[in-house]
């Protein structure tokens, strides 16, 4: 169904049953899922969040300047990217980490043409450090990188949530599942799929988004096979 996808992984998806931090077993399971679709010929780019690490630093960051806290979050995404790279390479999948902030000892700098070349050479590319700028989320980074790389779809992996609902299903038992919605409607209704800047980028570039539950190990494979999973957001 898709030749090139961008997978947005939240940091929380890497926690497993932990309160914060990275669960090696969960990272390995995710790496196996990604490696399986890569072997089927799908070009895979990944933007990873840092919530699992930053959650443990939240108390320390309280009262900090916003920009300082955001830079700490960017560094957390680099740690997650390296953990995921290691797990993917253990599955014998060539992987490159590109960082939006310069950490030349452990990651390449983000260069659009180089990233595209990696994908064409059958390498998975993991983008770390968001956009490299404070005040922008990793959701915005995912939308930006997807547009730059001409990805056909953004797969938004959620931790234990099946897709988009009319309200937070963890809070409101009467929340209704939404199988399909437009970018504009999601923005107008204030549905918390991704931040408004990321939504606007997707809408302007006609980028569809599939919001799905990462806990089901078959979902990524189903989506790239053309099956309807989770919620489809499109223009």
> Proportion of β residues?
15-25%
Cα distance, first to last residue?
19 Å
Strand order of the largest sheet: 4-3-5-2-1-6-10-11-9
What is the tally of beta strands? 11
Q: Could you estimate the helical fraction of the residues in percent?
A: 40-55%
CATH class: Alpha Beta
Largest sheet data: 9 strands, mixed
**CATH H-level superfamily:** Acetylglutamate kinase-like
Going by CATH, the architecture would be: 3-Layer(aba) Sandwich
| Number of discrete domains | 1
Tell me what you see in this structure.
It contains eight helices and eleven strands. The chain is of the alpha/beta class and 235 residues long. Helix 1 (24-39) packs across helix 3 and helix 2 runs antiparallel to helix 3. It starts with a strand and ends with a strand.
List keywords for this structure.
235 residues, 40% helix, 11 strands, Carbamate kinase, alpha/beta
Summarize the helices and strands and which ones pair or pack:
Elements: E1 4-9, H1 24-39, E2 43-48, H2 51-61, H3 66-90, E3 95-99, E4 108-109, H4 112-120, E5 124-128, H5 138-149, E6 153-158, E7 164-165, E8 177-178, E9 180-182, H6 183-188, H7 196-204, E10 209-213, H8 219-224, E11 231-234
Parallel strand pairs: 1-2, 1-6, 2-5, 3-4, 3-5, 6-10, 9-11
Antiparallel strand pairs: 7-8, 10-11
What's this model, at a glance?
With 235 residues, the protein is of the alpha/beta class. It has helices spanning 24-39, 51-61, 66-90, 112-120, 138-149, 183-188, 196-204, 219-224; strands spanning 4-9, 43-48, 95-99, 108-109, 124-128, 153-158, 164-165, 177-178, 180-182, 209-213, 231-234.
